[in-house]
Amino acid sequence: MSLTIALQTAASGLQAAQAGLRAVSDNIANVNTPGYVRKTVVQQQLVVGGQGAGVEVTGVQRVTNQYLQMASMAAGSDSSRYNVYSQFLDNAQSLFGDPSGSGYFFNLPDDISANFASLANDPSSSLLRTQAVNTVSNFLSEADRINSQITALGASVDSQIGGDVTQVNSLLSQIDKLNTDITRARITGGDSSGSENIQDQLLNQLSTLMNVQVTARDQGGVTVRSPEGILLAGDGAATLSYNKATNTPGYISVTTPGASTGSQAITVSSGEIRGLLDLRNDKLPGIADEVGELVSRTAQQLNAAHNASTAYPPPTTLNGRNTGLDLPTAASGFTGQTTVAITNSSGVVQKKVAIDFTAGTMSVNGAAGVAFTPATFLTTLNSSLGAQGSASFSGGALSISATGANGVAIDEGTSQKAGQGFSQFFGLNDLVQSSGGMSTYDTGLTATDANGFTPGDTITLRLSAADGKPIRDVTVAVPGAANPTMGDLVNALNNSSTGVGLYGSFTLDAQGGLSFAGSPPQNAQLSVVADTTQRGAGGPSMSQLFGLGSGPRSLRAASYSVDPAVVADPTKLALGTLDLSVAAGQSAITPGDGTGAVALSLAGQTSTLFKVAGDLGAVNMTLSAYAAQLGGAIGRDAATAAAQKASATAVQTEADTRRQSVEGVNIDEELVNLTTYQQAFSANARMIQATKDMFDVLNNLIT
Questions:
Q1: In Å, how far from its chain's centre is CA 567?
Q2: Which of these, 477, 472, 566, 567, lies nearest to 526 by C-alpha position?
Q3: What is the b/e burial string over 282-312, where b = at least 16 CB atoms within 10 angstroms of the residue's CB?
Q4: Using CA atoms in the order 189, 191, 192, 195, what is the torsion angle rounded to 10 degrees?
Q5: Ramachandran sector of residue 579 (left: φ over 0; alpha: ψ -120 to 50; beta: rest)
Q6: pLDDT (tens digit, 9 = 90+) per residue, 645-698?
Q7: pTM, two decimal places
Q8: Sheet holding 213-216: strands in order across?
Q9: Pairwise CA distance, residues 445 & 486, whole Å
Q10: What is the 3-state composition of the chain as percent helix, strand, coil, each rounded to the nearest 5?
């Protein structure tokens, strides 16, 4: 080896040792710096002319493990998802009150039963009447409060999603810009570890907001893609948008850099944004729907008892609710018998019209029956009432009035349609009313009934994935066939080419309710984008009549209230029943009769068919049992979310610990490296000195 080669070898070793010392000193200085990844010097043998000429430092690299990095980011995404989900679900659960407290919302139906039971013992007590009415009003106002606050939680979720998307866009822009710095440092042989550490921290922040695919670029830096592979950062930064509408699921779309087309929806399967989307699209509307189902069925049973009863003295007019139907359709499909009675102010029957729906006849005061059809129902009823009263039908609502100071009372008898008696179906003597459109989605329509919607009118339905990502929008026109029936309408909706048949199906149940169920494997969710249909002139749209989508269903709990006339005058409570077995001239209604109050007190114990709502399936049980089940389900959901949060956090902690064990700085190891590089530095310095000494000796020999 020549002295020149020896000097070059020692000098290169000296430089390599210096580079190693700098790396070790940086590691030690940042031992407690969050996100810092330890670095090492990359060196290789230097060969000149086929001979070894020392060592060459080719760069400085961070000690990373791609598998552990991806595992840590995935765990961070899941942890953030369940953390925010648990937080909001905990807030939602608290809206219902303390289960051990007297004001717990799901105990209120039992309070209603208890107050009406007390009233049944003393029907003349104005205090007990007021207390019973106030208990019902309190239940409905609490439902309104809860529904409003769930809506407010949904607005907070919307706002947070928007903020998260803005933060994602900022992070993608920063990550993309750092790619340039890293690549430049790599090309010039500089130290890019600082920029790479910052980029790693940004990726960690991004992964808490949404899950992404991250791959290293050959020239340095990273490429970030959505789960389905859409470019988000790497060759320019994409822009994400949060798409939301009142009645459709929210979703995330992206506009890629330099894209010639518009934005496209992307999948978000984890991260805080997914947790918020789950809340916004599914859980919060689902809870509101469940509460709405409880409130609507409570109203249904209270109204069933109130319609089967009458006040003393009977009211002059019974005004029904909007059924959303035309009268022939509304009057068809009944079975059994009912009786409309006109009484004087003392409860003595002046005229009674017995309506036999099964036979299709009306009989006045026991005389021979007169035949009627659904089309002639109103005319025949008016003829039967004669000078004693009248009936009218307008805006989907039936009204029956008595003349003069007389009153109207109804004996429901055995009449039935869609599980409701005649008076209840038309809402003639409802205790609880709805101001939010349809009070029930049990329309009573059958497949052979005329659907009533204008042919050619359209409804646009959106089918969405679990994270709200649109699958397809389908526009269905009301069929224009001759005498189109509900069966025709359902078939049009379920058509596999022009309807939703590829993704699920609509079903018209025995009560006339129309519902959609997605089919595997997509299990699509359905919402209404636009609805121009109308049932008759000024009638409800298809989505309003049947409660299609989460929009109308999630708001119905806020629409109920006690009849204002009863609130203003509790003596108008229907606490008695019409007794048609009394002798002529005797009062068929008495002021001390509490049988109606007994029926109202038993409403909570009456078996009721609850339809699918939120996460709860269809079930037949009492109001009290359903309230208990719903309260328990919400509590279990909150507990499950808390457990998922704890589990995800534990996984994240373990993943971060393992990643830190590889990427983090170990003081003992760095001290060993420090000693090694110091010794290498000293050895190379001595070699340089020895080479100098040898050169001096040779030089002296020559001179």
A1: 35
A2: 472
A3: bbbbbbbbbbbbbbbbbbbbbbbbbbbbbbb
A4: -150
A5: beta
A6: 898 888 888 877 777 777 777 777 778 877 887 887 888 788 888 888 887 887
A7: 0.88
A8: 213-216, 222-225, 231-233
A9: 7
A10: 45, 20, 30
